[in-house]
Design brief:
With about 550 residues, this protein is mainly beta. The chain has three helices and 29 strands. The strands form four sheets. The chain has a 21-stranded antiparallel beta sheet. It has a four-stranded mixed beta sheet with strand order 4-3-6-5, with no helix packed on it. The protein starts with 7 loop residues before the first helix and ends in a 9-residue tail after the last strand. About 35% of the residues are buried.
Length: about 550
Amino acid sequence: DASSARSLPELLRGRAGITIVNQGGMGKLSTLFLRGTESDHTLFLVDGIRVGNSTSGLTSLQDIPLSQIERIEIVRGPRSSLYGADAIGGVIQVFTRRGSGGEGVHGRGRIAAGSHGLREASAGVDLRSARGGVGVDVAHQETDGINACTGTYDPNTWIGAGCFIVPGTHLDRDGYRNNNATVRADFAPSEAWRLDARAFRAEGHNAYDGDYADNSDIVQQVVGGSVRWTPSDAVALKLTAGRNTDDSDNYIGSTLANRYTTTRDSANLQGDFTVASGQVLTAGFDWLRDRADVVDPWLPPYAPTRGNRAAFAQYQGKFGAHDLQLSARRDDNDQFGGHSTGGIAWGTGFGQGWRVTASHATAFKAPSFNELYYPGFSNPLLAPESSRSTELSLGRHGEGWSVQANAYQTRVDDLIAYDSTLFAPNNIDQARIRGVELVATARLAGWDLRGQVGTLDARNLSAGTNHGKRLARRPQRSARLDLDRDIGDWGIGISGIAEAARWDNVANTLRVGGYGTVDARVSWRFAPAWTLQANLVNALDRDYA
């Protein structure tokens, strides 16, 4: 709530292990690389429901508004055993707003305006009783956008379609609009039972630069619910089910260029059993079905469907100062058959609050529908990508401060990349990713400090001319520092984000320079329920790409 971020990609930018690539400002396609893995190697959940576009394999981060988010959890490293396939780089879970306050009626509202024609408004209300409650939040966000085109075209560096084909075109601002709402209800008929249901929907319009399509109408929707039964302190069962819908109608001017409609249905049954003091066994089943329907006047019909079923188990044990975790999973994919993944983790405490952990895990990811079936630009013979990762961590939580250091290595086999000899994607690559993350927090002289630093060495190990080259769009170094302080009814804060240079193509010939930005914020609580806040993003007015 206190940050200067106006979107989910902005909020995640600079966090340890996270690189964000944005194609032109608010609402534009934003991809996320977690610990150097591919942009479709991170599993996203909204309230426990899997989300993502089954055609591209990406999640529309830019269309999930911050106004509907209560908190975000980031789990780094492979977690396929517990969360399911696709979690090679890790898992990011978004939790929408829950009911706030005790019994009674609780309301909230917000209005904001800013540069580039930014307009925002949101409101919400919760009705709570002793056994449960209902709530709704609605919000609107709109901006005139920025111009992301240079207006020049260099045939030596051009690597894709867009605003550079015809010099001087697309030099306009590209606006964005998002109207969204969340409704929720929860009920606990007894101490042992709890029911929860919620729905989120965002509808918007996005303008961008392109020669084949230059604006889109988008829909993001997540509907789900859960039933939890806790008959005793030793047993807990939870059933979760839901659907994610990702629609995009794309136009060139007012003429339909193509339409992408994808749905992802999922269900999960999980049981947690305390078999002895400090010994917990988790077991469950997953079901997933992806569907897509692509309409394009220039292409044949394209409507694939794929299902996946899985069983998983995890053991967690505590033995004095030592902790042990074992996990295993078996997936049965309609197209690619059975795949087994697993992990082992060990940790121990020593000294004055220090803790060391070590882990090793495997993961896999099936190709996306576009990679397999897109007419004229696909390869139906693709195999799933697989990975194995090792991590070593050292950390300590003291009074008023904490520090955590993580060192990791991930190897990805059968990495899917574009093969120029086939003019299609192919399993031609292997990659090795090594990195170190350092996260520290402290409270000094009334200031709250949080620092994050990361180094990354992500290389292509495939045979050929690109062997040893760095993977595209991953900076070697990144850092973020947040400073905040409350002084009576006033609050002040500064955030600094820096990223080193990166390569924008697999041949490492197109270089994008490093940069650093500074954001500033100030707030004033002029009444018990009222706050006035001002933000200055990129306060030093740095130009960067």
